[in-house]
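Notes, p. 3: input format for complexes.
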Amino acid sequence: MNSQPTSREVLKLGVLISGGGSTLENLLAHLRDGRLRGAELRQVISSRGTVRGVELARAAGLPVTVIRRRDHADDGAFSAAITAVLAGAGVELALLAGFLCFWRIPARYAGRVLNIHPALLPRYGGRGFYGRHVHEAVLAAGETESGCTVHLADNQYDHGPIVAQARVPVRPDDTAETLAERVGIAERELYPQVIQQVADRGLAWLRTFR
Ligand code: GRF
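Output follows (210 residues plus 5-O-phosphono-beta-D-ribofuranosylamine):
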């Protein structure tokens, strides 16, 4: 018997980006070579038009929609535009992947939006904690450990139930760059692992995190 999931069972993903798209690139690689199964990428949304992530998505033949905050009157209109595109593409699980804008998550996507953050939340998260700022803060605090967090996103920055974390050591001679690289390796394993779990167990599994 064919054990492949039928198309009805395939988890439909949407990815939201703002920049380099390294998270998107990693997810695409996992989907392409079968390390991530039972899921398909239906839609990419970018809050910026001319970023590497958009080029990557187009080169992969994916539907990409650029939705810029400045083209919308307020957060509500911007958020509604995002929701409409995701819903129109049949996206069931939305993945924030270096998305730097505020999407007010509507009821229909509550509990269906994941984010990955390059630190061990709840520390070193929130507004302003993105990119190298996160790693600089971890180093400045003299932490001996950092890592990454996959969490359910709610309507506060870097906030919501934690689904999984991976830890990495902070070395005495680390710079923001060397630490970012080590955390990045952990991120590229953790995010696909969590998405695989959702594909295997169903979206209801995410409701077990509070
Ligand atoms: C990663 O540090 C991730 O944790 C954060 O955005 C960074 C990746 O950005 N959410 P990108 O995917 O290269 O645009």
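The beta strands are 11-17, 39-46, 64-66, 93-96, 113-117, 145-152, 162-169.
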